[in-house]
Amino acid sequence: MPFWLVISVLVTLRYKPEIFHNLICPFGALQRTFGRFARLSKKVDKTACVGCKLCENACPSNAIVVSAEDNKAEINIALCHQCPNCSQVCPKEAIHYGVPDTNL
């Protein structure tokens, strides 16, 4: 167990947070596997989103990408850890918890 703790600390110091959240953390592995079947998740109100990328920068698991085509945020529910970061930084309050869009 101490071995994995040391490895986790070293990886966290060396790489971006999404590496730890998506590849090393056991919760991240479970979320990536089962999260895509979530009945409830974070979702973006496309009519309110202005494409400011604040949510993209605030996401520790790199689950949010602002699309170049329509300049709107999209959340990969398989990577989303349901933290409040994106909702807290959104100036238009466009990110809410609810039934995810099926087209993601």
Pick out its properties.
Alpha-Beta Plaits; 4 strands; 104 residues; globular; two-stranded antiparallel sheet; alpha+beta; 38% helix; 5 helices; two-stranded antiparallel ribbon
Give a written overview of the molecule.
With 104 residues, the chain is α+β, with helices and mostly antiparallel strands. Helices cover 38% and strands 13% of the residues. The protein has a two-stranded antiparallel sheet with strand order 1-4. The longest helix is centred in the first third of the chain and has 13 residues, at 2-14. The mean pLDDT is 85.
Name the strands of the widest sheet in spatial order. 1-4
Large-scale geometry: globular
Relative strand content: 5-15%
User: What does the main sheet amount to?
Assistant: 2 strands, antiparallel
What low-confidence regions span 5 or more consecutive residues with pLDDT below 50? none
Query: Helix- and strand-based class?
Result: alpha+beta
Determine the CATH topology: Alpha-Beta Plaits
CATH class: Alpha Beta
Number of beta-strand segments? 4
Q: Termini separation (Å)?
A: 37 Å
What is the strand and helix layout of this fold?
Layout: H1 2-14, H2 17-24, H3 26-34, E1 41-44, H4 54-58, E2 64-66, E3 73-75, H5 85-89, E4 95-98
Antiparallel strand pairs: 1-4, 2-3
